[in-house]
Amino acid sequence: MSNFKDATNAIHAGVAQTQEQENSEAIFMTSSFAYASAEEAAGKFSGDDDGNVYSRFTNPTVSLFEKRLASLEKGEAAIATSSGMAALMTLAYSLLSAGDRVVCSRNIFGSTVKFFNTYTVKFGVEVVYVDATDYAAWEEAITDKTSLCYFETPSNPLYEVVDVAKVSQLAHDKGALLCVDTVLATPALQNPLTQGADIVMQSATKFIDGQGRCLGGALIASQEIVDVFTAFMRSAGPCMSPFNAWVLLNGLETLSLRMTAHSANAIKLAQYLEAHEKVKKVNYGGLPSHKYHELAKQQQKDFGGLLSFELEGGRDSAWRFINSTKLMSITGNLGDTKTLVTHPATTTHGRLTDEEKQKAGIAEGLVRVSVGLEDIDDIIADVEQALGQLD
Ligand SMILES: Cc1ncc(COP(=O)(O)O)c(C=O)c1O
């Protein structure tokens, strides 16, 4: 499919029809595959012959999702996982050994910090955190022992934008790999693999699904690196269900159109919030006033659907605002067609210590909005009436 453009690949990449010549992709809800003979089974199990063996290893629907996603991310290959966090686990257990160092952005999803600090360190891997936009700090922290650098861009929920090319250069100078979480941008808005990253991590649960129906994750990289992940998958099993792969394949078909529409709504809401007297600060890369606007413009095709803003009055104001909304769903998810509202300090980032929250800038007055695809006038009207409930 490499001769086609992204919009075509989003709909056709990876398609392999069965003998039935189905037009839409089939779901192979099967745990294993049957063979005509013991000889055929032995050949497939040993890997001497191509073919599916067991759905923990490969499954045609999951493979199709992987091929299509790899094509959109401009990577050689992808591996799908049961969730975004399962992708992180696959990355860590496949690539890290005792004595290694991970250098990670401080401004990162709460469960990522918990995973690194609780589980990765148990196996003798050191994890150090840096301010991800301080490139001198990266340079200092990346030592010869560093095997992995990791950050989100744009970050959730503060919309910090990190220069992929700069950090990849610093990582590669010391022989380390760079993995970038671009869950907020998705392959529709940014392709870190073309900007110097070695691996992209996706939570397909978010915008790739786009309707809040199922969990999924993926790692996209060179074939050589994905082969290492595949070996781990065969032994450890955090694989994606064929049904979820089928849902997510359909999500990929409309991803680019949805991201354009999410972005168009989000900039309007960000502008409204920026002009509102009760709002202290708006974090959205599409605003020219945003610290990382220029870099976001350079690295991304658009600014996406997630923003956050800070209210005076800390948690009381944030909770009162959230409880006053009528159109929005109060949830920890993001990336849905519905507009979603979250209080990061007590939900998505609630497991961070107070010190970690303070360092990461997760204030009690911070509200996150995943701007959906409803009419923007209705979204703004809801925000307006909810802000009206504050003193
Ligand atoms: C930026 C980011 N990365 C990773 C994840 C984890 O993904 P999942 O919930 O699919 O495990 C999330 C989930 O909210 C996220 O927001």
Task: Give the arrangement of secondary structure elements.
Layout (H helix, E strand, L loop, with lengths): L5 H7 L25 H9 L13 H14 L3 E5 L2 H12 L5 E5 L4 H9 L7 E5 L4 H7 L4 E7 L11 H10 L3 E5 L4 H4 L9 E5 L13 E5 L1 H14 L5 H33 L4 E5 L9 H7 L6 E6 L2 H11 L4 E2 L9 E3 L11 H7 L5 E5 L5 H12 L4
Parallel strand pairs: 2-3, 2-4, 4-5, 5-6, 10-11
Antiparallel strand pairs: 1-7, 6-7, 8-9, 9-12, 11-12
Helix pairs in contact: 1-3, 1-10, 3-10, 4-9, 12-14
The chain binds pyridoxal-5'-phosphate.
Write a brief structural summary.
The protein is an alpha/beta fold and 391 residues long.
Account of the protein in words:
With 391 residues, the protein is of the alpha/beta class. It has two domains: 6-251, Aspartate Aminotransferase, domain 2; 256-387, Aspartate Aminotransferase, domain 1. Helices cover 40% and strands 15% of the residues. It has helices at residues 6-12, 38-46, 60-73, 84-95, 110-118, 135-141, 164-173, 186-189, 223-236, 242-274, 293-299, 314-324, 354-360, 376-387; strands at residues 77-81, 101-105, 126-130, 146-152, 177-181, 199-203, 217-221, 279-283, 306-311, 329-330, 340-342, 366-370. The strands form two sheets. Strands 1-7-6-5-4-2-3 form a seven-stranded mixed β-sheet, with helices on both faces. Strands 8-9-12-11-10 form a five-stranded mixed β-sheet. Helix 1 packs antiparallel against helix 3 (60-73), helix 3 (60-73) runs parallel beside helix 10 and helix 12 packs across helix 14 (376-387). The longest helix is centred in the middle third of the chain and has 33 residues, at 242-274. The chain is globular. The mean pLDDT is 95. The structure holds pyridoxal-5'-phosphate. Pyridoxal-5'-phosphate (PLP) binds next to helix 4.
